[in-house]
Amino acid sequence: MARVAFREADVNLMARMMRAEAEGEGKQGMLYVGNVIVNRDVADCADFRDLRSIRDVIFQVQGGNYSFEAVQKGNVFYQRAREAEKKLARKNLQGWRQHPAKYALWYFNPYAPCPPTWYDQPLTGQFKQHCFYEPAAGTCDSVYMG
């Protein structure tokens, strides 16, 4: 059963974002980015309270900037979705989750060792260049649902 409602347009959009954000980290890295995208759609807390679709997540603006750098800067994001990434996006949308991004709402590439917290959120782990962070205990129980 799918974790969130989605249409084929959502699969394409998510596939493009996964590729743009993590193509260099292979299929596993792209799946982890997909976890974060779906988790933000599921989360009903913090910065993600008003997100109700994959499109809302991808095009969210915070502090005057898109939440995902690839929307603003990424020429890869604006290329057509490929079948390989669409397959990965469907896998995430249908419920695939895995550590360190299983419950993560944030990730970034610090170009250095991962800090133990990021904006007071605990580090759950690292995969290649990306550090993943899930909400502090008791602050976003909805991300653990579904």
From TrEMBL:
Keyword Thylakoid included in the entry's annotation: no
Keywords for the protein's UniProt record, in alphabetical order: Hydrolase
Name of the protein described by the UniProt record: Cell wall hydrolase
GO function terms (MF aspect): hydrolase activity
Superkingdom as given in the UniProt entry: Bacteria
Residue span(s) of domain Cell wall hydrolase SleB: 24-133
Organism in which the protein naturally occurs: Tigheibacillus jepli
InterPro entries: Cell_wall_hydrolase_SleB, SleB_dom1
Pfam family, one: Hydrolase_2
